[in-house]
Design goal:
Elements lengths: L4 E8 L2 H16 L2 E8 L1 H10 L4 E7 L4 H8 L4 E8 L2 E7 L16 H4 L5 E3 L6 H12 L8 E3 L3 H13 L6 E5 L3 H4 L2 E3 L12 E7 L8 H8 L5 H12 L5 H12 L1
Helix pairs in contact: 1-9, 1-10, 2-3, 9-10
């Protein structure tokens, strides 16, 4: 086993990506590496992978959400995909107390009876996120702005707290979200059907490694990293323990990994 080597691990600075990165970091530490986690927004992380500021990225969602960013990097440096961390996908959802017979798909948001009850503010996250790109296109293609809806770019916490506050008041609210995400661990969120497929497809979440840094690892170490497989539900549960129960992220992920082995 190679030891005393430093790995700079890029982490997309959202809670569930931080959870996946913590799982990867603990695995690398057990291999004998010193790991520095470096946090940045989605697109910026790929730019830093391109320049070599980071050598690994946890996690990339491919092909829908981050495929375009990966392609840009691979114009200069090949990348190795490791593992299938989980199978993420984007969605628009409503709390389960919103009657399904009234709201079951995106086009239902244009019904006068729904417009009169639904909170018109749709709170998203940051600009570079796949869900943000998809949601802006949804607003345009379904002409939701004409019906009075407004999509707001903001922080991760803006999005989640807006949903939680609305649920506390039993408001009808739309949340642009994805799986895995910790809100699914506590709340029953019904996904709205979107036949135009503007929200992309089910992606695969993987660890990316610059191929010119592949020699930092033994074949056995690469196989171990490639075997790190989780599920949407596992990531959502660990995310909830950290984000809403206030537990230490590395203790949560270390405990889960040790219990699995």
């Amino acid at each position: 086993m190679k030891s005393n080597k430093k790995i700079t691990l890029g982490v997309t600075n959202l809670s569930f990506h931080r959870v996946a990165a913590s799982l990867v970091a603990y695995t690398l530490v057990k291999m004998g590496f010193e790991v520095e986690r470096s946090y940045a927004p989605h697109q910026e992380n790929f730019e830093r992978l391109n320049t070599g500021e980071i050598v690994m990225l946890a996690s990339a969602w491919l092909p829908s959400s981050h495929g375009i960013y990966k392609s840009n990097v691979e114009e200069k440096v090949p990348l190795l995909e490791l593992g299938l961390h989980y199978k993420p996908y984007a969605l628009w959802g409503v709390p389960d107390y919103v009657p399904e017979e009234e709201v079951s798909e995106i086009v239902d948001l244009l019904k006068p009876s729904v417009i009169s009850k639904m909170n018109k503010n749709i709170q998203g996250i940051n600009q570079g996120a796949g869900i943000t790109r998809f949601s802006i296109q949804m607003m345009n293609d379904y002409k939701l702005s004409h019906a009075g809806y407004r999509f707001h770019i903001g922080t991760e916490e803006n999005c989640f707290s807006a949903f939680e506050n609305a649920v506390a008041n039993k408001e009808w609210v739309i949340v642009p979200l994805w799986k895995p995400q910790f809100l699914h661990y506590k709340y029953n969120i019904r996904e709205l059907k979107e036949p135009k497929e503007l929200l992309g497809i089910v992606d695969k979440a993987v660890l990316l490694l610059r191929k010119d840094k592949e020699n930092l690892f033994t074949i056995a170490q690469l196989e171990k990293l490639n075997s790190l497989q989780f599920t949407n539900d596992i990531i959502a549960e660990l995310d909830y323990k950290v984000s809403r129960e206030g537990k230490n992220i590395d203790e949560v992920t270390k405990k889960w990994l040790n219990n699995r082995n």
